[in-house]
Amino acid sequence: MATYLISMILGVLIILLAFRAGRSLVLEKKAERKLKIFSARLANLEESAKRKIAIELHDRVGQKLSALNLNLNIIKNRFTHDDSGEAETFFADSFRLIEESTEEIRDIMSELRPSNLDDHGLAAAIRCYSDKIAMRTGLKIDIIDDEPGLRLTENVETPLFRIAQEALTNVVKHAKAHSVTVRIEHRQDCTRMTINDDGIGFTRETSGDEASGLGIIAMRERITAIGGRMELNSAPGEGTSISVEV
Amino acid sequence: MSRYETKNIRILLADDHRIVREGLKSLLAAGGITVVGEAANGREAVRMVREHGPDVALVDIAMPEMNGIEATLQIVTACPECRVIILSMHATSEYIHQALNAGATGYLLKESAGQEVVLAIKTVARGKRYLARRISGTMADELLSKGMRLKKNGPLKSLSPREREIVQLVV
């Protein structure tokens, strides 16, 4: 009788524990789903804030600089001849300042939200970003798009661009690579983007950098948020390959 | 002798920023160029080109309602005699290609338009192309290296006729 009672109590306890564990698992899954939704929403908010600042910079500051350049030319044309040539130097300096400021605004705009991404699509935006890296670092970057000109929806192009951006930044920071290839392949049911470098590669142990670890997590989150997946392959001395599919 | 060398060049300005239009207008007036109309968007620009038949239209690439690229397409269709110069803040090749493919014969960067606009207008009015000085070098490099990548038997052969034309213009 006693044995029977003990085993009954034990049984009930086990059921209760299992139930609680199951419940907490369900809750955990629910929380994880919520977290994913929030992080996707956060990424969208960040993207639209960046776009807004880029547009404001173009429309407000950029146009005023253009007008300033025009006005300065008008003044220069009306300026009576100056023997010392001092005015010429000031004008030349001012024109150079306007050009440099515009260039800086262009850089900030393209860091915030490359207009090429909206106007000409993923490959064009990656190419533009790569050109800047190549010019700065000497890294050789090839971009291969098997269907040039084909546009994807904005909610796919934006995360793919951000992933390429993060991956290329990581290559510059850590890989010690000579060349990188970004390949965009369009299939009937999906798009795949791979970023391969010929750098030093890494393992979980050798990559002690927390920031790049977070970068990889962020890339994975971006792609899973739109129902895609990411694969990362790397080994010391064998470069790194990141492949995302959506 | 082109007909433009003997007469005053008539211009249409299309830019949604009034301060830019005002600046351009004063600058062009000093250069002996007459502005026959001002538009604040692409749609207006097309309508005014039909109305005034200018020799050259100076068209901002980014405008509300109808952007400069679409306006260029419609302008050159409606009025093949009218030359279009695109005004832009973008210096990358995609925008330049897009503008030239739409039928523009000139491409100016806004930050240096003041120094180049009169020359650009006179050049396109003579039936030639004009690319902003700052971008012509990069365009030539890019087109030539594209040619090198595509075919080994001479870079120029693998370019499209329009691309070859650009290389010849800028080298």
Question: Features of this protein?
Answer:
heterodimer, A: 246 residues, alpha+beta, Heat Shock Protein 90, five-stranded mixed beta sheet, 6 helices, B: 171 residues, alpha/beta, Rossmann fold, 2 domains, six-stranded parallel beta sheet, 7 helices, globular
Question: What's this model, at a glance?
Answer:
Chain A has 246 residues and is an alpha+beta fold.
Plain-language structure description:
The complex is a heterodimer of chains A (246) and B (171). With 246 residues, chain A is of the alpha+beta class. In chain A, 67% of the residues lie in helices and 13% in strands. Chain A has six helices and five strands, in the order H-H-H-H-E-H-E-E-H-E-E. Chain A has helices spanning 2-78, 86-112, 115-120, 122-137, 154-175, 210-225, and strands at 140-145, 179-186, 191-197, 229-234, 240-245. A five-stranded mixed sheet of chain A has the order 1-2-3-5-4, covered by helices on one side. The N and C termini of chain A lie far apart (62 Å). The relative contact order of chain A is 0.08. Chain B is an alpha/beta fold and 171 residues long. Chain B has two domains: 3-131, Rossmann fold (3-Layer(aba) Sandwich); 133-171, no CATH class. In chain B, helix 5 (113-125) links the parallel strand 5 (106-109) and strand 6 (130-131). In chain B, helix 6 packs across helix 7. Chain B is globular and about 40 Å long. Classes of the chains: A alpha+beta (246), B alpha/beta (171). The A-B interface holds A 58-59, 62-67, 69-74, 77-78, 95, 98-99, 102-103, 106, 115-116, 119-120, 124, 128 and B 17, 19-20, 22-24, 26-27, 30, 62, 89-92, 94-95, 98, 109-115, 134.
